[in-house]
Request: fold
Amino acid sequence: MSATMGSSSSSAQKEMVCHCQLPVRICTSKTKEHPGKKFRVCPNSLKPGKKCKYWEWDEEPVQQSLDVEIASIKEDVSDLKKEVLELKKKKRGHRVHISCNLL
Reply:
């Protein structure tokens, strides 16, 4: 089952609506199988006599979060590679001379 995007006169951000045309609620699973996983449900789903069958896992925020995390990790790796190259250049430019005087 999928939600539709509601129309909004103000524009850009449209909220998801269920089959009743109500904004869906995002809830958190408390089951053993899916602890902490988000899902979308009709706000009427728990009201007696008003049973909308809309329900789905909320996958989009998870993917967006992963994409942001991956981009951040790639940037960190790139920065670390640059730092390693700079350190290698400095190492080549510096020679250490050690001398000892024995009495």
Q: What stands out?
A: The two ends are 88 Å apart (CA to CA). Residues 6-13 have pLDDT under 50 and may be disordered. Residues 1 and 30 are 21 Å apart (CA to CA).
